[in-house]
Design brief:
The chain is about 35% helix and about 20% strand. By secondary structure, it is of the alpha+beta class. The protein has a 5-stranded mixed β-barrel. A 3-stranded antiparallel sheet has the order 7-6-8. The protein starts with a strand and ends with a helix.
Length: about 270
Amino acid sequence: MGQTYKATGINLKNMPFGETDCLVTVLTSEWGIVRAVAPGARKQKSRLRGRVEPFVVNELLIVQGRSLDKIIQADTLESYPRLSRDLGKLTASQYLAELVLAVGLSEQAQTELYDVFNEHLRRISEITQSSPGAILSRLTHGTFHILALAGLAPQVHHCCLTGRSLKGQDRIQFSFEAGGAIAPEPLDPTQAVPQSSTRPRIDRYLNPKELQLLQKLTAADLDDLNDPPEAPSFETSWLRVEKVLRDYSQYHLDKTIRSATLLDTLYVTEF
Protein backbone atom coordinates (compact mmCIF):
# COMPACT_ATOMS: atom_id res chain seq x y z
CA MET A 1 0.00 0.00 0.00
CA GLY A 2 1.26 3.50 -0.87
CA GLN A 3 1.77 6.39 1.47
CA THR A 4 -1.32 7.86 3.11
CA TYR A 5 -1.90 11.60 3.36
CA LYS A 6 -4.59 13.94 4.64
CA ALA A 7 -6.13 16.87 2.80
CA THR A 8 -8.98 19.33 3.13
CA GLY A 9 -10.61 19.79 -0.23
CA ILE A 10 -13.65 20.87 -2.18
CA ASN A 11 -14.88 18.68 -5.01
CA LEU A 12 -14.73 20.33 -8.42
CA LYS A 13 -16.20 17.51 -10.49
CA ASN A 14 -16.69 13.75 -10.59
CA MET A 15 -17.27 11.08 -13.20
CA PRO A 16 -18.04 7.34 -13.25
CA PHE A 17 -14.99 5.10 -13.08
CA GLY A 18 -15.37 1.38 -13.57
CA GLU A 19 -18.58 -0.31 -12.47
CA THR A 20 -19.13 1.31 -9.08
CA ASP A 21 -16.25 3.71 -8.48
CA CYS A 22 -16.05 7.45 -9.03
CA LEU A 23 -13.13 9.58 -10.20
CA VAL A 24 -13.14 12.81 -8.23
CA THR A 25 -11.22 16.00 -8.96
CA VAL A 26 -10.63 17.97 -5.77
CA LEU A 27 -9.07 21.34 -5.00
CA THR A 28 -7.19 20.84 -1.76
CA SER A 29 -5.58 23.49 0.37
CA GLU A 30 -2.48 21.40 1.07
CA TRP A 31 -1.79 19.62 -2.24
CA GLY A 32 -3.56 21.65 -4.91
CA ILE A 33 -5.51 19.76 -7.57
CA VAL A 34 -5.90 16.09 -6.67
CA ARG A 35 -7.53 13.42 -8.83
CA ALA A 36 -8.46 10.31 -6.90
CA VAL A 37 -10.72 7.28 -7.13
CA ALA A 38 -13.52 6.91 -4.59
CA PRO A 39 -14.05 3.10 -4.43
CA GLY A 40 -17.66 1.99 -4.57
CA ALA A 41 -18.92 5.58 -4.30
CA ARG A 42 -21.73 4.91 -6.80
CA LYS A 43 -23.18 2.09 -4.70
CA GLN A 44 -26.48 2.97 -3.05
CA LYS A 45 -25.22 2.34 0.50
CA SER A 46 -21.69 3.67 0.10
CA ARG A 47 -20.50 6.06 2.82
CA LEU A 48 -18.71 8.03 0.12
CA ARG A 49 -21.75 8.41 -2.15
CA GLY A 50 -22.91 11.90 -1.16
CA ARG A 51 -19.43 13.06 -0.21
CA VAL A 52 -18.01 13.00 -3.72
CA GLU A 53 -20.66 15.33 -5.18
CA PRO A 54 -19.46 18.66 -6.60
CA PHE A 55 -18.93 21.52 -4.14
CA VAL A 56 -18.84 19.33 -1.04
CA VAL A 57 -15.97 20.16 1.31
CA ASN A 58 -14.35 17.16 3.00
CA GLU A 59 -11.50 16.20 5.23
CA LEU A 60 -9.93 13.41 3.19
CA LEU A 61 -7.67 10.49 3.87
CA ILE A 62 -6.02 9.44 0.62
CA VAL A 63 -3.67 6.64 -0.33
CA GLN A 64 -1.13 7.33 -3.05
CA GLY A 65 -1.25 5.00 -6.04
CA ARG A 66 0.97 4.36 -9.03
CA SER A 67 -1.38 6.06 -11.47
CA LEU A 68 -4.31 7.29 -9.39
CA ASP A 69 -4.69 7.98 -5.71
CA LYS A 70 -7.54 6.45 -3.70
CA ILE A 71 -9.89 8.13 -1.23
CA ILE A 72 -10.37 5.82 1.74
CA GLN A 73 -12.13 8.25 4.09
CA ALA A 74 -14.12 11.47 3.69
CA ASP A 75 -15.64 13.51 6.50
CA THR A 76 -17.85 16.33 5.26
CA LEU A 77 -17.16 19.78 6.69
CA GLU A 78 -19.48 21.85 4.51
CA SER A 79 -21.73 21.64 1.48
CA TYR A 80 -23.71 24.11 -0.59
CA PRO A 81 -27.11 22.46 -1.13
CA ARG A 82 -28.70 25.67 -2.41
CA LEU A 83 -26.46 25.61 -5.48
CA SER A 84 -28.07 22.47 -6.88
CA ARG A 85 -31.58 23.86 -6.33
CA ASP A 86 -31.09 26.80 -8.70
CA LEU A 87 -29.82 26.26 -12.24
CA GLY A 88 -28.35 29.75 -12.45
CA LYS A 89 -26.37 29.34 -9.22
CA LEU A 90 -25.24 25.85 -10.21
CA THR A 91 -24.06 27.03 -13.64
CA ALA A 92 -22.15 29.95 -12.12
CA SER A 93 -20.46 27.58 -9.66
CA GLN A 94 -19.47 25.16 -12.42
CA TYR A 95 -18.08 28.10 -14.40
CA LEU A 96 -15.82 29.06 -11.46
CA ALA A 97 -14.81 25.42 -11.01
CA GLU A 98 -13.61 25.34 -14.63
CA LEU A 99 -11.47 28.41 -13.99
CA VAL A 100 -10.01 26.82 -10.86
CA LEU A 101 -9.11 23.72 -12.86
CA ALA A 102 -7.43 25.91 -15.48
CA VAL A 103 -5.26 27.90 -13.05
CA GLY A 104 -4.82 25.43 -10.17
CA LEU A 105 -1.57 23.52 -9.68
CA SER A 106 -0.99 19.98 -8.46
CA GLU A 107 1.37 18.69 -5.78
CA GLN A 108 1.73 22.03 -4.06
CA ALA A 109 -0.29 24.09 -1.61
CA GLN A 110 -3.11 26.15 -3.10
CA THR A 111 -4.42 27.73 0.09
CA GLU A 112 -5.35 31.11 -1.38
CA LEU A 113 -7.14 29.59 -4.36
CA TYR A 114 -8.98 27.17 -2.07
CA ASP A 115 -10.10 30.02 0.21
CA VAL A 116 -11.15 32.31 -2.65
CA PHE A 117 -13.12 29.58 -4.44
CA ASN A 118 -14.88 28.57 -1.23
CA GLU A 119 -15.74 32.18 -0.43
CA HIS A 120 -17.25 32.89 -3.83
CA LEU A 121 -19.26 29.66 -3.77
CA ARG A 122 -20.65 30.79 -0.45
CA ARG A 123 -21.60 34.19 -1.88
CA ILE A 124 -23.36 32.62 -4.85
CA SER A 125 -25.14 30.15 -2.58
CA GLU A 126 -26.39 32.94 -0.31
CA ILE A 127 -28.06 34.96 -3.07
CA THR A 128 -31.64 35.42 -1.87
CA GLN A 129 -33.15 36.87 -5.02
CA SER A 130 -31.86 34.70 -7.85
CA SER A 131 -31.99 37.35 -10.57
CA PRO A 132 -29.61 37.39 -13.55
CA GLY A 133 -27.94 40.56 -12.26
CA ALA A 134 -27.31 39.10 -8.81
CA ILE A 135 -25.81 35.88 -10.16
CA LEU A 136 -23.78 37.51 -12.94
CA SER A 137 -22.27 40.10 -10.59
CA ARG A 138 -21.09 37.46 -8.13
CA LEU A 139 -19.89 35.16 -10.90
CA THR A 140 -17.87 37.94 -12.48
CA HIS A 141 -16.46 39.00 -9.12
CA GLY A 142 -15.27 35.44 -8.48
CA THR A 143 -13.81 35.20 -11.98
CA PHE A 144 -11.78 38.37 -11.49
CA HIS A 145 -10.40 37.20 -8.14
CA ILE A 146 -9.39 33.79 -9.50
CA LEU A 147 -7.62 35.48 -12.43
CA ALA A 148 -5.89 37.84 -9.99
CA LEU A 149 -4.49 34.92 -7.99
CA ALA A 150 -3.10 33.47 -11.22
CA GLY A 151 -1.51 36.81 -12.12
CA LEU A 152 -3.84 37.22 -15.09
CA ALA A 153 -6.37 39.85 -13.97
CA PRO A 154 -6.82 42.66 -16.52
CA GLN A 155 -5.70 46.20 -15.80
CA VAL A 156 -8.86 48.28 -15.40
CA HIS A 157 -7.82 51.38 -13.42
CA HIS A 158 -5.03 52.63 -15.68
CA CYS A 159 -4.27 52.51 -19.39
CA CYS A 160 -2.20 49.45 -20.25
CA LEU A 161 -0.09 51.40 -22.72
CA THR A 162 0.59 54.68 -20.91
CA GLY A 163 -0.25 54.03 -17.25
CA ARG A 164 -2.61 57.00 -17.21
CA SER A 165 -5.71 56.94 -15.05
CA LEU A 166 -8.91 56.08 -16.90
CA LYS A 167 -11.10 58.39 -14.83
CA GLY A 168 -13.35 60.63 -16.89
CA GLN A 169 -12.76 58.73 -20.11
CA ASP A 170 -15.50 57.59 -22.49
CA ARG A 171 -15.47 54.70 -24.93
CA ILE A 172 -12.56 52.95 -23.28
CA GLN A 173 -10.86 50.33 -25.42
CA PHE A 174 -10.19 46.84 -24.07
CA SER A 175 -7.45 44.61 -25.45
CA PHE A 176 -6.94 40.96 -24.50
CA GLU A 177 -3.42 41.06 -25.91
CA ALA A 178 -2.41 44.19 -23.98
CA GLY A 179 -3.97 42.89 -20.78
CA GLY A 180 -6.85 45.26 -20.14
CA ALA A 181 -8.18 48.75 -20.71
CA ILE A 182 -6.66 51.37 -23.02
CA ALA A 183 -7.42 55.08 -23.10
CA PRO A 184 -8.43 56.07 -26.66
CA GLU A 185 -7.05 59.61 -26.41
CA PRO A 186 -4.11 61.01 -24.42
CA LEU A 187 -5.10 63.28 -21.55
CA ASP A 188 -1.83 65.12 -21.88
CA PRO A 189 -0.78 65.88 -25.52
CA THR A 190 2.86 65.96 -24.45
CA GLN A 191 2.78 62.29 -23.37
CA ALA A 192 4.02 59.79 -25.89
CA VAL A 193 1.39 57.50 -27.34
CA PRO A 194 2.27 54.29 -29.22
CA GLN A 195 1.93 54.62 -32.97
CA SER A 196 -1.17 53.03 -34.51
CA SER A 197 0.97 50.41 -36.24
CA THR A 198 2.22 49.15 -32.87
CA ARG A 199 -1.00 49.40 -30.91
CA PRO A 200 -2.49 46.04 -29.86
CA ARG A 201 -5.71 44.70 -31.27
CA ILE A 202 -8.80 46.21 -29.66
CA ASP A 203 -11.32 43.51 -28.76
CA ARG A 204 -14.05 45.53 -27.03
CA TYR A 205 -15.23 49.06 -26.30
CA LEU A 206 -16.47 49.81 -22.80
CA ASN A 207 -18.97 52.45 -21.80
CA PRO A 208 -18.48 54.30 -18.47
CA LYS A 209 -20.85 51.97 -16.60
CA GLU A 210 -19.08 48.82 -17.77
CA LEU A 211 -15.68 50.27 -16.85
CA GLN A 212 -17.02 51.20 -13.42
CA LEU A 213 -18.22 47.65 -12.82
CA LEU A 214 -14.90 46.17 -13.94
CA GLN A 215 -13.07 48.48 -11.56
CA LYS A 216 -15.30 47.44 -8.66
CA LEU A 217 -14.30 43.82 -9.22
CA THR A 218 -10.84 44.57 -7.83
CA ALA A 219 -12.33 45.12 -4.36
CA ALA A 220 -12.79 42.35 -1.80
CA ASP A 221 -16.55 42.97 -1.72
CA LEU A 222 -19.07 44.41 -4.13
CA ASP A 223 -20.52 47.53 -2.57
CA ASP A 224 -23.60 49.50 -3.57
CA LEU A 225 -23.74 49.73 -7.36
CA ASN A 226 -26.35 52.52 -7.45
CA ASP A 227 -28.85 50.58 -9.54
CA PRO A 228 -31.11 48.01 -7.81
CA PRO A 229 -30.29 44.39 -8.76
CA GLU A 230 -33.60 44.00 -10.58
CA ALA A 231 -33.07 47.05 -12.82
CA PRO A 232 -32.70 46.16 -16.53
CA SER A 233 -29.63 48.41 -16.87
CA PHE A 234 -27.97 46.62 -13.96
CA GLU A 235 -28.51 43.18 -15.47
CA THR A 236 -27.55 44.22 -19.00
CA SER A 237 -24.33 45.85 -17.80
CA TRP A 238 -23.29 42.77 -15.84
CA LEU A 239 -24.10 40.55 -18.80
CA ARG A 240 -21.74 42.58 -20.98
CA VAL A 241 -19.01 42.71 -18.34
CA GLU A 242 -19.22 38.94 -17.82
CA LYS A 243 -18.81 38.40 -21.56
CA VAL A 244 -15.76 40.68 -21.71
CA LEU A 245 -14.10 38.91 -18.79
CA ARG A 246 -15.07 35.48 -20.13
CA ASP A 247 -13.50 36.11 -23.54
CA TYR A 248 -10.45 37.63 -21.85
CA SER A 249 -10.10 34.52 -19.63
CA GLN A 250 -10.45 32.12 -22.55
CA TYR A 251 -7.83 34.06 -24.50
CA HIS A 252 -5.23 33.93 -21.71
CA LEU A 253 -6.02 30.42 -20.46
CA ASP A 254 -6.41 29.01 -23.99
CA LYS A 255 -9.45 27.08 -22.77
CA THR A 256 -13.16 27.25 -23.51
CA ILE A 257 -15.43 27.71 -20.50
CA ARG A 258 -18.03 25.08 -21.30
CA SER A 259 -20.49 26.17 -18.62
CA ALA A 260 -20.77 29.53 -20.36
CA THR A 261 -22.91 27.90 -23.06
CA LEU A 262 -25.61 27.13 -20.51
CA LEU A 263 -25.16 30.56 -18.96
CA ASP A 264 -25.95 32.13 -22.34
CA THR A 265 -29.01 29.92 -22.70
CA LEU A 266 -30.26 31.05 -19.30
CA TYR A 267 -29.66 34.78 -19.59
CA VAL A 268 -28.89 36.07 -23.07
CA THR A 269 -32.43 35.50 -24.30
CA GLU A 270 -33.75 37.63 -21.45
CA PHE A 271 -32.24 40.83 -22.83
